[in-house]
Design a protein that fits this description.
With 201 residues, this protein is α+β, with helices and mostly antiparallel strands. The chain has 6 helices and 7 strands; from the N terminus they run H-H-H-E-E-E-E-H-E-E-H-E-H. The chain folds into 2 domains: 133 residues, Electron Transport, Fmn-binding Protein, Chain A (Pnp Oxidase, Chain A); 31 residues.
C-alpha cells in the first residue's frame, strides 16, 4: 500500500534520484498537501470531454512497454463514474497487443494532450477488456463510423497535470477553419470595396 497517490510514479528509486537532483523537498511538500487526485473532478471531466484522441500505455508481464493511439469523436473517452473511464475499442489491425498485455498485467496509463492550449494530463491506473455487448453499446456514439469489437474500462489510481513547457501549439482542422474564417470574411469585404472603387473610377 502506498502512502501517497503520487507513489504510483514516485517509487523509492525515483525518490532517490529526486533527492540527488534536488527536487524531492518540493514534491514532499506537494504530497503533504494532498498530492495528486484519484477521482474525476469537474475540470478533468471537461478536459476529457474535449479530447478526440489519447495514448494508452500497457506492458507485458515481463515489463515490455507498449503505447497505442486511440481516437474518435470529442468525448469518446467516457466517464463511467468518478473513479472509472471507458471507451469502445474498434476493430483495427488485429494485433491485440494492448489486450494481450492487459490479460497478464492490468497496470495501464492514459496520456491526454491538448496542443492548442499546451495542456497535458497523465492518468495512472488499471484496465480491463470487457466484451459485454450491453456495456459496449453504452460507449458508442451512434453517428460515428466504426465497428466496436470490445470495450476497455480504466480504473483511476492517480492523475496529474503537467506544465506547458516545451509543448508546441498545434490546432485541429476544425479549429483552423474557425480561426481563419474571420480573415476570409475580411478579405471578401475588402475585395467588395475594391470592386466598388474600380467601378466608380
Amino acid at each position: 500500500m502506498t502512502e501517497f497517490t503520487s507513489d504510483i510514479a514516485f517509487t523509492p528509486a525515483v525518490k532517490r534520484i529526486q533527492e540527488k537532483k534536488g527536487s524531492r523537498a518540493g514534491y514532499a511538500r506537494m504530497e503533504a498537501k494532498g498530492g495528486w487526485r484519484d477521482e474525476v473532478t469537474e475540470g478533468l471531466s471537461d478536459f476529457i470531454a474535449e479530447r478526440d484522441s489519447f495514448y494508452l500505455a500497457t506492458a507485458s508481464a515481463d515489463g515490455q512497454p507498449y503505447i497505442q493511439h486511440r481516437g474518435g469523436k470529442p468525448g469518446f473517452l467516457k466517464i463511467v463514474n468518478d473513479k472509472t473511464l471507458a471507451f469502445a475499442d474498434f476493430k483495427g489491425n488485429k494485433q491485440y497487443i494492448s489486450s494481450g498485455n492487459l490479460s497478464e498485467n492490468n497496470k495501464a496509463y492514459i496520456f491526454l494532450m491538448d496542443y492548442a492550449t499546451r495542456s497535458r494530463v497523465k492518468i495512472w491506473g488499471t484496465a480491463r477488456v470487457v466484451n459485454d455487448s450491453t456495456q459496449i453499446s453504452k460507449l458508442v456514439d451512434t453517428d460515428y463510423n466504426g465497428v466496436p469489437e470490445q470495450a476497455i474500462f480504466f480504473d483511476i489510481t492517480a492523475w496529474d497535470i503537467n506544465c506547458p513547457q516545451h509543448i508546441t501549439p498545434r490546432f485541429s482542422e476544425e479549429k483552423i477553419v474557425e480561426l481563419v474564417q474571420p480573415l476570409k470574411d475580411r478579405i471578401e469585404e475588402l475585395e467588395a470595396l475594391l470592386k466598388q472603387c474600380e467601378e466608380k473610377s
